[in-house]
């Protein structure tokens, strides 16, 4: 039960549109902020980054080659190693040379990490400092 008292003459009409002026102001401020900060972010210290190269490793006669097959058997050159203590004794002879030869460990992809770690530990205990792992380069 509403009561109609007649037309109200002092009231404004209802606006049915959205005022987009504040939205445009906010967007312009954000645009200015991004235009100012993007050059600062992209500019950094000038450095020359190294290029990736695949250099073939030269096998020198004084390099020590240790191999571990998939079954975990260790080899010094082509001779099988009986025990870890035997390997340490043989590697100590190489460690006494001046300059020390480089040790290259060739571990089979299917070998346990423990077996490769055992050979690496033996090289460390013998006093060898130049140790490398030989890997197969990735095919493109």
Structure description:
The protein has 140 residues and is α/β, with parallel strands linked by helices. It has a domain at 64-133: 2-Layer Sandwich (Nucleotidyltransferase, domain 5), CATH 3.30.420.270. It is built from three helices and five strands; from the N terminus they run αβββαβαβ. β2 and β3 form a beta hairpin. α2 crosses α3. The N and C termini lie far apart (84 Å). The mean pLDDT is 79.
What's the Cα radius of gyration? 37 Å
Morphology: rod-shaped
How much of the sequence is in beta strands?
5-15%
Please give the order of strands in the largest beta sheet: 3-2-1-4-5
CATH domain class name of the domain at 64-133? Alpha Beta
Number of helical elements: 3
Residue windows where pLDDT falls under 50 for at least 5 positions: none
| CATH-scheme architecture of the domain at 64-133 | 2-Layer Sandwich
Order of helices and strands, N to C? HEEEHEHE
Mean pLDDT: 79
Helical residues, percent? 25-40%
Number of strands: 5
Q: What structural class do the secondary elements suggest?
A: alpha/beta
Would you give the CATH topology of the domain at 64-133? Nucleotidyltransferase, domain 5
Which terms summarize this structure?
140 residues, alpha/beta, Nucleotidyltransferase, domain 5, 3 helices
Brief overview, please?
With 140 residues, this protein is an alpha/beta fold. The protein has helices at 21-42, 84-95, 113-126, and strands at residues 64-68, 74-76, 79-80, 103-107, 131-133. It is built from three helices and five strands; from the N terminus they run αβββαβαβ.
